[in-house]
Amino acid sequence: MRNKFTVDPVRRGTMLGTDIRGIIAEEEEVQRRKDALKSLLSMRSKQLRESLEQRIKRARTCGDWIQLSQEECATLHKREKLHLKSQFDKLQHEQDRTRGKLTALKRAKARAQRIRAAEAASGRKRR
């Protein structure tokens, strides 16, 4: 009878290989998310730097704010900037979390590869 607590070395290697593939897939997904966040932050930053005059010009070319006075445009612009700043702060926080997760995944992948290499080396020594 085989001890149920021992792990078959061949099966263990397969599981570890699957773990590495899973880590790599997750790493790629997190990297895509990081790139998307970077793009969003860039757009929000550009919008935050936009002056009232530039915003009015952009709004009127799009067909917005046509019937509004200068004061109403200024009020809307101020509200937009507050909203954009809030979004920007949330996106920065999310970007920091994503960066940390990506770093942790890279460490996990390197550790899994070291373990896999050590197991392969010990397997060759036994033969």
Number of helices: 3
Q: In what range is the share of β-strand residues?
A: under 5%
The counted number of beta strands is 0
Structural class: mainly alpha
Give the count of structural domains: 1
Shape: rod-shaped
Please write the string of helix (H) and strand (E) elements: HHH
Estimated radius of gyration: 26 Å
Please report the distance between the alpha carbons of the first and last residues: 25 Å
Helix coverage percent of residues?
over 70%
Ranges where pLDDT stays below 50 over 5 or more residues in a row are 1-17
| Nearest-integer average pLDDT | 85
> What does the main sheet amount to?
none
Characterise this structure.
With 127 residues, the protein is mostly helical. The protein has one domain (9-120). Helix content is 86%, strand content 0%. It is built from 3 helices and no strands. The protein has helices spanning 9-49, 52-62, 70-126. Helix 1 packs antiparallel against helix 3. The two termini are 25 Å apart.
Features:
127 residues; mainly alpha; 86% helix; rod-shaped; disordered N terminus
Secondary structure elements and their pairing?
Elements: H1 9-49, H2 52-62, H3 70-126
Helix pairs in contact: 1-3
Quick description:
The protein is mainly α and 127 residues long. It has three helices and no strands.
